[in-house]
Amino acid sequence: MVARATVCTTFQTGTAPTGTVIPIMAGSVTVDGTADVRSTLDLTTDGTRMWPTTTSSTLLLPYGNEVYVERGVAYGGDSTEYVGLGYFRIPQPDQQQPPNGPIRLAGRDRMAGIVDGRLLAPVQFLAGTQLGDVVAELVFDVYPGATIEWDDATDTDTLSRSLLAESDRFGFLNDLISSVAKIWYWDYRGVLVVKSLPDPGVPVFDVSAGTGGVLTGMKRQLARDGVYNAVVATGEATDSVPPARGVAFDNNPDSPTYFFGPFGPVPKFFSSPLMTTDAQCAAAAATLLQSNLGLAYSVDLSLVPNPALEPYDPVTVRAARTEPFETHVLSKLAVPLTAAGAMSATTRNQTVVVIGTA
To answer: Exposed (0-12), middle (13-18) or buried (19+): which is 350, by Cβ within 10 Å?
Structure first.
């Protein structure tokens, strides 16, 4: 097992950035699909003559430098394969034993810059503006060199009415992207990805116990707190047209959270002025519901690390050879940066998805 951390003093994109490699003494990368800032870094490095000041070492100054982190495998000789875990802004170096004790870095991915970068003045986007241009303008204002990648042609859709982004840059963008039934995050390449949720019925990895398996520990829990089985999405009305509205609900009779079953109706409400048609509202409601179905049954896993896994990836889980496989969707992962630890993952059980709309 190998891991590498590269401090970048310029904004870069891709899996081979130019920078200064620093040693990794301990640490992990946590990826949470439900958080505004999806990926966070906790890294401890050698602090010998490394404490950042404006007059000596500036490498770890919290003024815009980023750390690119990777985990991989050395096969022997010169053959090494790395999987990128992303770029992390350095917000707060911490040294408990000056002058040369270890330095702990707590990093956040590039979404932190979008959250922090509130607008100094309102920005208006006129009807007919393409969605891709709206996203690009607000993102490039913070990261002029950013790369934005859509998984389809939704970026060419246009606004049906004029919109005003007031002060919350992240909130406006998050509403906009949710309104077209997409998720968005900065990926392992430092690229801002706007995409649809993966198909929860097509597992990409097998997490099982026993010989040849990768599962090292498992805890599971059933709870209904915070669970909902329907989403009502509404937009804003114009002078002559009533508000747009869409409803999505768990319509699978075999699901434990079936809307018409003993679980009972538990709706969640979502509203955005960016949705102007019933079709938009229905699509947004279905995406929000799909990303949360099955939370009544959650599992905490410990497994042999696979840094290529991401939130919303569906996996098959089997606690013992005598048990049947279950399909789960990953919601949170913690990837260790040393060989000593297992990777932890939190999942939710994914029943066969049948989403009804109204």
So the answer is: buried
Kind and range of the H or E element at 83? strand 79-89
Average pLDDT for the chain: 90
Q: Which of 144, 148, 142, 130 has its CA nearest to residue 169?
A: 142
**What are the sequence ranges of the domains in the chain?**
2-109, 114-195, 205-357
Residue 14 to residues 18, 40, 71, 109, 189, Cα–Cα distance (Å): 10, 18, 15, 14, 4
Q: Are 92 and 62 in contact (CB under 8 A)?
A: yes
CATH topology of domain 114-195: Phage tail protein beta-alpha-beta fold (3.55.50)
Structure tokens at 337: 């940066």
**Confidence (pTM):** 0.88
Return d(Cα 288, Cα 295) in angstroms, integer. 13
How far is 4 from 198, CA to CA, in rounded Å?
A: 29
238-297: pLDDT as tens digits: 556 678 899 999 998 988 889 999 999 999 998 887 788 888 898 888 888 887 776 667
CA distance 79 to 339: 18
